[in-house]
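Ticket #4471: structure output looks truncated?

Reporter: J.K.
Steps to reproduce: submitted the chain below (556 residues) through the standard prediction queue, then opened the result file.
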Amino acid sequence: MQSAPVTKYRPFPPVDLPNRQWPSRTLNRAPIWCSVDLRDGNQALAQPMSVEEKLEYFGMLVKIGFKEIEVGFPSASQIEFDFCRRLIEENRIPDDVAIQILCQCREELIVRSIAALSGAKNAIFHLYNSTSPAQRKHVFNASRADIVAIATRGTAWVKQYSQPLVAAGTRMRFEYSPESFCSTELDFALEICEAVTAVWQPTVSDKIILNLPATVEYATPNVHADQIEWMATHLTRRDRTIISLHTHNDRGTGIAATELALLAGADRVEGTLFGNGERTGNLDIVTVALNLYTQGIHPALDFSDINGIREIYERTTRLEVPARQPYAGELTFTAFSGSHQDAIKKSWAVQKPDEPWDVLYIPIDPADIGRSYKAIIRINSQSGKGGVAYVLENEFGFQLPKLMHKEIGKLINDRADAKGTELTSVEINDIFRREYLEQPAPPVTLQHFKTTERDRTVKCEASIAFAGTTHPLAGAGNGPIDAFVRALGTTGLPKFDVMSYSEHSLGQGAEARAVSYIQIKTDRGLSLFGAGIDTNIELASIKAIVSAINRALAKR
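Returned output as attached by the reporter:
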């Protein structure tokens, strides 16, 4: 990097828009969406999609709800042409879906593109040419007037050569892009768009699409919004124009630029699923659409099976959705931080189905997009007690008493710290079971337990194995737990008091079992929990006492 002061780069000039309106507006509806996955996205792939992969992808886009889909550049290659023809000839395009093709302002390419669209019911012809000062100087060595002539001549050819298609029943719409709009002087962008519009002669019922692409991001999103509002307020045929956006992500702000530009008056958005595109990518339509959804605005696109969409995307593009990608990434709804986990668990517990979503750290209900609750809290050495309790409850059904959270949390964290990596939910469950329910070679084992009740007094008969010897026990108390604790007092085991007790069912119906959690405090002041499971709730509590005793002996 250059040392300060930086003279190699210069700030992007601001837009003179003293009465800008977009900062005070709010979004209240979804834009018109156009997927460019099969053209702009596909050309950015190291290994472009095959025709069969494109067909599958097209079907997915239709299922999601896209009504405008750019399918290719049919004049650029035979495979692009053939794909367009297959869509039409095999009747794969629903009547309410328009296919869009891209073309440069050259007569022979326009003729070839029109041939590719023959028989289509709804089509959008997307014409473009470069307009920026750098393009004019370094690529075309052309004046402003020369560039305008290229655009208007190309528009006239599209209008001329599309007449047979229109006569045959095709609804032909027209889109024009000043390809490097964001780096073009605004007065010239307006001039060329006005000239193209004058040639096409749109109507209120058949509007022209003026696509104003941020081909390369050079400025902050607010400058892009200013550019769009400036154009929207200066176009003379605004009522006959659909203003379209096509943002790239070179500065990492393509989503923000799109959202602010929608506030600035844009009507339409072009982008790709998960932001696939040249360099740092195109706009991620999934994120913008679901951002709208979290604000109570239905995006008119269906992402209720985001996992299935992601699977097709990754298989056909051979790209991976990053783990922290908004909404769709593997770890999007995952918290490792202990404080975050605790907040999620507590706010989720009080979330009611008929009330607005308000779960901390999770802006959208994962179920709305087909995501699972299971991976929301995952455990590593940074995790807290609430996260461990959440995993055990939501994945395995163990509703640990609150006082037990700290104990199990420290146990799991110590194991995660020793391992040095994340613990899976299966590993967490295994550790819990070995520590509380299935202790290997425990010092004390319960061999027999039976109670009888008379005159409000419960008597128990039991036997335990301890130190290689079987000990028959007998005791009486105000309940099975009290009777068993008293009976244990006749052995050489540590003396203890029962501090707390809770239980719940695990599972439903005939297969349901009872789970008991008992906290004891030994005569040495050691406080800890035990747990037990049995189809008999009485036996579950007795097993929990034995579990606690074994843990106390292990501590000694």
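Triage note (M.O.): checked the attachment and the full token line is present. The CA atoms of residues 342 and 386 lie 5 Å apart.
Status: closed, working as intended.
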